[in-house]
Amino acid sequence: MSDANTPRRAVSILKVAGASKVYDLNGQPIHALKDVNLDVRKGEFVCLIGASGCGKSTLLRILGGFEPVSTGRADMYGRPITGPDSERGMVFQDYGLFPWLTVRQNIAFGPKQRGLPEAKLKEIADHYLNMVGLTKFAGHFPGQLSGGMKQRVAIARVLANDCEVLLMDEPFGALDALTREVLQQELLDIWQNTKLTIIFVTHAVEEAVLLADRVVVMSAGPGRIEREFHVPLARPRAITSPEFNQVRQEVTDMLSSHLTHIARAA
Amino acid sequence: MSTLLPSAKPPTVSSTSTASVRQAAPALAVSFPAPQPGAWKRGLMTWVAPVVLPVLLLVVWDLAVRKTGTMLVPAPKEVGVTLWDFAFGGIHDDAFSGMLTTHWWMSISRVYGAFALAALVAIPLGLVIGKNATVRRFVDPTIEIFRPIPVTAWLPLSMIFFGVGPNAAIFIVFLGAFFPVVLNTTFGVKSVDPRLFEAAAMLGCKGGSMFRQVVLPAAMPSIFNGLRLGHGISWFLIVVGEMTGVQEGLGAIIMDGRMLSRTDLVIAGMVVIGISGYVSDRLIVALNNRLLKWSPQHNV
Q: Which one of A86, A167, A221, B209 has the fewest beta carbons within 10 angstroms of its own beta carbon?
């Protein structure tokens, strides 16, 4: 049950307050984000959803520490996020694996930075290889793997580094439908077996409703949070159930009402 | 070539089997396990195919010398004899008999000395230029100005700097190998996917460790490209360098051959250079394939 996993009064882990992000494009300011407020509780599964250009990836990159806010703040446990850190693991759509390292070495990369002994590295790698079902491929290079396997490695890599927050930027967007379904299920299993907080960017309504405790709907021009939506469905969720369909329709309506709004404005 | 291959197969099989091969051929095909013909074909392609063209060239060369009756160009056989004498002595008994190892060793030590020196300077320089935009602004234009100058144009100056002798040749080789290595290294560092830096950073990799763990391995394919190019140029230039005022070395032998109208010796020197260059290139390729086995598209 979602509520059992994420009690309402759990501690706030990530907090974005009044955050804006302005890019300079040939002297022209581009408002990627404007006055965004978001509070994520520990253990929560949040999906950021919106059309392209709504700033959902920018918001995620700010949380990852890859980009600073222009104004406002982005904090973790009340401390400002100043750069990438191993407590917030990022899973990129294009994997970002090190092609010269084997699957095992990729997974052990984070722990290795902490100077753990070789035996400990092996133990950690073995554990996470097993968790994502890639034990047989430990000695392969990323170039020899399918997209789904690569994304499993990317997930194992940040988990192996004991991250508390998993930031996922359309991680399954490049995968075929079958692989995506399997990975969504595996991700839910992992989330339910750990105390991870997950922030998941997607543009697929069904994916958001299937995964999230809370769906954050964003819209473009300038990028901002339009609405938040608590998914009232118990887990495991059946995509084919009428309840699921109803929630999906609600979120879809929210999204498309903004799209028509934008279309009319343009 | 495709007509050569199938006809080349039956004799090799028959030599190991009984007399009546033609009648037994279908039975043989059945009695052999399936992968056998494939292995034969692969063996042929690996070992025979590369030899076909050189043999053809030798035949054309031989025929051309016979047809024209020229006295200026020796036939392949004469060159073969000279090459043997150059290597082991006992035929011509002249100043070159049995001297191959000496000359070859001089050339190869200069090639590798100069090439190694060039790599030693060019790789770190390329890494710094590629990583540091400020350094790049200071150094890049200068390199781009020096680059189009043919290295051979440096020969007169290098003889003034280093005197007439092997050091001038080494300098020429160094210069020739330097540019491809530095340029490819720079390119390799500049084109590292920024995503990899982000990935490493969020996994706790910092500062100098980033350079060793991300920049260097990611740039490795480009660095190897540069090394391979520079290495080829090194062999090319050592001969040019040794042609002026150097006593020993393959370039010197070719120059001597020219002075003495010993065209057979000139060609023998060319053959040795060709084979040496080829073999040492294979060694670099083998190292490349070993170190870059993660990247199938960089396996040569």
A: B209
* Cβ contact, residue pair B203, A99, below 8 Å: no
Is A110 in contact with B217 (Cβ distance < 8 A)?
no
pLDDT, position A260: 64
> CA nearest A158: which of B160, B89, B200, B166?
B200
ipTM: 0.89
Closest CA to A236 of A210, A205, A263: A210
Name residue B152's amino acid.
Answer: T
Residue with tokens 């020096």: B146
The H or E element containing residue A17 is strand A12-25
* Alpha-carbon span B176 to B179, nearest angstrom: 6
**Angstrom distance (rounded) from CA B63 to CA B206:** 67
Do A143 and A155 contact (CB within 8 A), yes or no? no
Task: For chains A and B, count residue pairs whose Cβ atoms are closer than 8 Å.
Answer: 70
Question: Distance between CA atoms of A156 and A149, rounded to whole angstroms?
Answer: 10
Phi, psi of A3 (to 5 degrees): -70, -30
Supply the pLDDT for residue A6. Answer: 47
Interface residue A84 vs chain B (CB under 8 A)? yes
Query: Which residues on B lie below 8 Å from A151 (Cβ)?
Result: none
The answer on pLDDT for B282 being more than 70 is: yes
Q: At what angle do helices B166-190 and B133-146 cross, to 10 degrees?
A: 140
Q: Are A198 and A168 in contact (CB under 8 A)?
A: yes
What tokens does A36 get?
């965004």
Q: Is B276 helix (H, G, I), strand (E, B) or coil?
A: helix
